[in-house]
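Changelog excerpt

This revision adds worked examples to the README so contributors can see how folded entries look when concatenated. The first example is reproduced verbatim below.
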Amino acid sequence: MILRSAAVLLAAAAAGCTGAPAAALQPGDEGYIRFTATNDDLERRNRPVEAEDIRILLRAEDLLDGAAAWNRDDDRVCVDDERAGRRSLFCALHQASLEVAGEYRHRRPALQEVRFAIEDATGGRAFEHRLRDFNNLPETDFDAVKRVLRTARERAAVRLDHTGG
């Protein structure tokens, strides 16, 4: 495990990433986030939405209140983002989830809606990690990040209105 973590850190350093990549963190480490693999059910665009999902998306928008608050070099480790006061799209959603829901659920509808908005904004472009990779694209600017958050919030709100969630 130590060799794997060291290899991940070296690869990240060679790629110009700062901080420990998410894959190098282990349960119990500061900043460890439990990621959940996706499946067909989680990729359905009509999953039930709760009011809490809307609040998470609104809070993420508030956390990214200006271009100076955005970290365009996401490594999916949010501890350093919080300390710096600059968050990637992923880390804004992570922090918003903690503040609003008291926990982070990687595949909750709010976050999935952002992933779907990214798919639509990029014409279905394939990404290893949609939130991180969209954030880090050279052509992604702050306005594009805000746009996918707004699109996700608007779509979730329509579903919430129709289902009474």
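The second example, added in the same revision:
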Amino acid sequence: MKMKLLVSAILLSGSWLAGVQTAQAIDEDDCGIWLCLPQGFPSGCEPHYAAYIARITHKPKPKPPLPKFSSCTTGDASGQYFKEGYVPYVPCKAGYTFTPGDRDDPAKCSKQVRDSKGDHKTESYTAIRRAHPYYVQVWIDGKPTTHYGVGPKSSKDWHIEGNTFWYRR
């Protein structure tokens, strides 16, 4: 009886430990996104690019574009290595102020100007919606990364602008 109990306990604890390791394990292709994204997925990054696209187009709900950095390292990730967010509109031209829209009125960019008689009037234009409103920025050694001219700079689902990777879900 004691022997059966001991064997059962060993098997149970072994299966629990195996479950913990697999639950925290992350795909190498996902972790490679951290290395390849800042460079625009150059040659050799095809599996990491495929993992990236699979994450942002995952159904029914997209996954975050990057896995947690700590899940790809053996140590603790301190400091900020990436920033992600959502910006639905292109910034207004210099001097214009953004005004969000509602159901009946579109978002606008406007500024106060004087006409030829010196009267104040409002000059405005409809704010431009981004085709790719979600973004990821990555830093290496505390400096924002840039696209190094290797690989594509855009597709219908994403584009690179400066050090920012824009995409849609």
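Reviewer comment on example two: Residues 26-88+130-167 form one domain. Residues 1-25, 74-78 have pLDDT under 50 and may be disordered.
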